[in-house]
Structure formats: structure tokens, C-alpha cells
Amino acid sequence: MTFPASSRRFQVFSYAVLLYTLAVVLWGAFVRATGSGAGCGDHWPVCNGVVIPREPTVATLIEYTHRVTSGLAMVLAVVLAVWGLRAHAPGHPARRASVAALILMLTEAAIGAGLVLFQYVAHDKSTGRGFWMAAHLINTFLLIGAQGLTAWWAGGRSRVALRGQGLAGGLVAAVVAGVMLLGVSGAIAALGDTLFPATSLAEGLRQDMSESAHVLLRLRVLHPVLAIVVGALVVVAASLLARLRPSPEVKRSATAVGVLYAVQLGAGLINLVLLAPVWMQLVHLLLADLVWLSLVRLSAAGLAEDAPRAELRPRESATLPSSSL
């Protein structure tokens, strides 16, 4: 079932909220990469016990800016959800996605508060911090995914049907799980880069392979391997989904996912060679978010109720003319 498109204003606003949220996410990564997470101490939501810090350090300014921008992101999420509920009839997918985005924004704030209150910030090297970072990454992916779907469905697309999708549904589930796992490993690898910086590529490899290496370093070495494996899965799954659901939207989305993932792999290699400078970590994260959003769009287009369906058929092989002996 295809629902009517939302107003132009709602469509523009939904995309603006998504772009702003991506900027806040990148600033949060900057907080982690610069070790500024303890800039406001173990106080939340206030900063060092006050609403507006006095004579703040650089770390305090960085962390405080993240809190202020995150607060505005929360306000925008509330506006998006309220507007989504008021502007769409019950059952409209944009309505549901906007509410889901608000709920995920609330859990995002709760995870951020937990990181501060439990002091999983700055130079903390505990294993618990790794679990919190994994949860943070998963929630962030789900959050921007919900915001992306709000904007997508606001354009008048059909809602998703999860039942009866057969192989297409299995492909989507596999590639979504794979990219999510890759994102978690990337978050842990980035944390390892922050906590255990190396002065050369050779030293970094020695750190990872050492028998006494910290668990975060042992997990860091898995990220490049996962990137290659998941990359192969993404390419195959996107290609098959484009054949199973041969709509223009699916084909464009499949191409976008493949291209962005290739760029992301290149950025990951550059990040590794340059020893993960802060600016490159932010570029790497932005590309990871764009890959995820493209995958969400591909999934929504491929599993749409009105998506055309086709069966997989072996590609016809070229036949050579027979010759008589």
C-alpha cells in the first residue's frame, strides 16, 4: 500500500533533522577521539555541577558543546514526532518512524548519560566501556535509520512488508546484521586507537599481536577482516536483491550501497596507514553512517509492499556454434 506524500515542509524538516543528528554524532566522536568525555566531570546533565561552566578548559568546552547540541537534537526529535503524528493518518509509515526516532533519541541520551555517570570516558580502559560503546553504536545506527525512514516514507513510498519476502528478506536480514556487527567492531577499534595510540604502523601491529595485548587491542585487529567479509556480503546481497526486486529504487539504492562501501574501505585503509588521526576518524565514521543509511533505504525499497518481484534465474550462458567433424 502506497501512502500519500507528506507536505514539502515536513519532508525538508525531516531531512534537516537527519543531517543535524549526523553532525551531533560526528561531534560526539570528536569528544571521544580527543579524550574530552570527562570535560564536565561525572555530572549529568549539568557540567561540573553548574548549568554553564565558568572558566572552562578546552575539554570542557568540547564536551559542553556536545551536550548543548545533543539537547537541541532532542528538541528537534520531539518536534518531528509531534508533527509526524499530527500530519499523517494512523498507519502511515512516516508517523511510526518519527515516533521510533524520538524513542531512540531518548535511549541515545540515556546511554550518553550512563557513559558519563559510570565514568566510561576519557582514558578509561575497562572492558565495560567497550560494551557501552557497542550499545551506543547500535542505538545510533537505529536512530539515524529511523530518521532516514521518516524522510523516505514522507516522500510517499510504500510501507515495508516483513512477511512472505522469502530470499529477499533473508538477504536484507543478513546484510543488516553484518553491517551492524562491522559498525560495532569499528567503534571498538576507534576506541582502541584513542586509548592505545601507535607511533608507526609496525608498532600498531605489534600492539595488536602481543600476547599481553589489552582486550580492546585484540578486538581491534578483527575490524579490517570483518570489513572485507562484510563487504563481499554487501555486494552479493545488493546484487541479488536488485534482481529479486527489480525496481528503479532498488537498483539505484543497490548501486549507492556498493559505491559507498568501496569508498568506505578506501577510507579505512587510509585511516590505518595514517594511524587514525582525529579528522580521518570522523571521515571514516561519516562514511559508515552513509553506508548504513543507504542500506536502510535499500532494505525499505526492496521489502516494500508494492516492490515488483522476480525469480532468480541462472544467467544465460553464451552458446558456441557447434561444428561437425
From TrEMBL:
The keyword Phosphoprotein does not apply. This is COX15/CtaA family protein. Keywords: Cell membrane, Disulfide bond, Heme biosynthesis, Iron, Membrane, Metal-binding, Oxidoreductase, Transmembrane, Transmembrane helix. The keyword Iron applies. Pathway: Porphyrin-containing compound metabolism. The chain crosses the membrane at residues 12-30, 64-85, 97-121, 133-155, 167-191, 221-242, 254-276. It is a multi-pass membrane protein. It holds the Pfam family COX15-CtaA. It is found in: Membrane.
